[in-house]
């Protein structure tokens, strides 16, 4: 059996906690996903906080962040330095997070990361209002 | 003058810089001035990769001071980012004619006391702030463009020259 792909959700303000709470409403209670906010943390402290968690992952894992270029993304990339099996994914939305929970026992870090990118992108759609 | 934002922020390039300030001021170049980062190929790659549509230049204090006037005359807007007040003062002392710094993020560390939610200073920071103010450099506390800029000296009298 494939080991579960670990993940850390790192986002601005309360977003990671809120996203996890929303995911649990849809998916049900989950365990094994750590959340972290960048609130009040310097670049160095945020990078160290992520690195401490990443270093515990024997089989690699995913650092799931909110947007490209933000401190969560940049510090995630810096913390993953030297860990080839740690993948940073930006732009995580609720459908992507739900897909993580559905598939974290089925895929390794890179394949799962690629899947989440597709899922997150595909979930953004336009539904035009129709005239009566 | 090409400089549209000259900022002290320990996160250097991050969301507030790219999204809040960047999408309002549209810089063509971002100069990150930090001796340690300029010597670290990995860090330079991360910062350049964070803003792939902007020309990110990571340089030392001496390199920035030497390039200051040429950048000032260049076309397009430019951001200057330094991680602390020590670098800000060093840059001014090296000859860069910075007239103001935006203080956007100096987060808590042991020994620092709170000025507001995103600015924490220790005695060395305050000494450097006083030196900058004494040289006529304006120091304004403001994290994002939509927030009100406030004078550091008014917020934190210990940072004001005697």
Describe the protein's architecture and organization.
- The complex is a heterodimer of chains A (132) and B (162).
- Chain A is α/β, with parallel strands linked by helices and 132 residues long.
- Chain A has helices at residues 15-27, 43-54, 71-79, 94-103, 109-122; strands at residues 6-11, 33-37, 61-65, 86-89.
- Chain A has five helices and four strands.
- Chain B has 162 residues and is α/β, with parallel strands linked by helices.
- Chain B is built from seven helices and nine strands, in the order E-H-E-H-H-E-H-E-H-E-E-E-H-E-E-H.
- Chain B has helices at residues 15-25, 35-38, 41-50, 61-73, 85-93, 123-134, 152-155, and strands at 3-9, 29-33, 55-59, 78-82, 100-105, 113-116, 119-121, 138-141, 150-151.
- In chain B, the strands form two sheets. Chain B has a seven-stranded mixed β-sheet, sandwiched between helices.
- In chain B, helix 4 packs across helix 5 and helix 5 packs parallel to helix 6.
- The chains are: A alpha/beta (132), B alpha/beta (162).
- At the A-B interface, helix 2 and helix 3 of A face helix 1 and helix 3 of B.
Task: Chart the SSEs and their pairings.
The complex is a heterodimer of chains A (132) and B (162).
Chain A: E1 6-11, H1 15-27, E2 33-37, H2 43-54, E3 61-65, H3 71-79, E4 86-89, H4 94-103, H5 109-122
Parallel strand pairs in A: 1-2, 1-3, 3-4
Helix pairs in contact in A: 1-4, 2-3, 4-5
Chain B: E1 3-9, H1 15-25, E2 29-33, H2 35-38, H3 41-50, E3 55-59, H4 61-73, E4 78-82, H5 85-93, E5 100-105, E6 113-116, E7 119-121, H6 123-134, E8 138-141, E9 150-151, H7 152-155
Parallel strand pairs in B: 1-4, 1-5, 2-3, 2-4, 5-8
Antiparallel strand pairs in B: 6-7, 8-9
């Amino acid at each position: 059996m494939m080991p579960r792909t670990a993940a850390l959700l790192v986002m601005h303000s309360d977003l990671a906690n809120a996203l996890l709470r929303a995911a649990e409403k849809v998916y049900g209670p989950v365990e094994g996903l750590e959340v972290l906010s960048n609130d009040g943390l310097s670049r160095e402290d945020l990078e160290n906080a992520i690195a401490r968690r990443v270093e515990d992952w024997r089989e690699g894992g995913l650092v799931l962040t909110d947007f490209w270029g933000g401190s969560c993304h940049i510090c995630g990339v810096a913390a993953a330095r030297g860990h080839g099996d740690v993948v940073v994914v930006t732009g995580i939305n609720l459908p992507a997070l739900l897909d993580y929970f559905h598939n974290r026992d089925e895929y390794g870090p890179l394949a799962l990361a690629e899947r989440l990118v597709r899922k997150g992108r595909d979930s953004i759609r336009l539904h035009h209002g129709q005239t009566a | 003058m090409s400089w549209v934002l000259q900022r002290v922020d320990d996160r250097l390039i991050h969301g507030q810089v790219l999204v809040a300030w960047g999408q309002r001021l549209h810089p063509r170049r971002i100069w990150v001035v930090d001796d340690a980062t300029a010597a670290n190929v990995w860090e330079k790659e991360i910062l350049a990769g964070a803003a792939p549509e902007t020309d990110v230049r990571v340089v030392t204090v001496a390199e920035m001071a030497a390039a200051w006037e040429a950048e000032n005359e260049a076309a397009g807007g430019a951001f200057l980012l330094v991680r602390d007040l020590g670098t800000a003062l060093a840059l001014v002392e090296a000859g860069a004619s910075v007239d103001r710094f935006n203080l956007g993020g100096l987060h808590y560390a042991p020994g620092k006391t709170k000025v507001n939610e995103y600015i924490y200073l220790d005695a060395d920071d305050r000494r450097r702030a006083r030196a900058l103010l004494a040289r006529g450099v304006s120091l304004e506390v403001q994290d994002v463009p939509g927030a009100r800029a406030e004078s550091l000296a008014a917020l934190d009298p210990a940072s004001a020259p005697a």
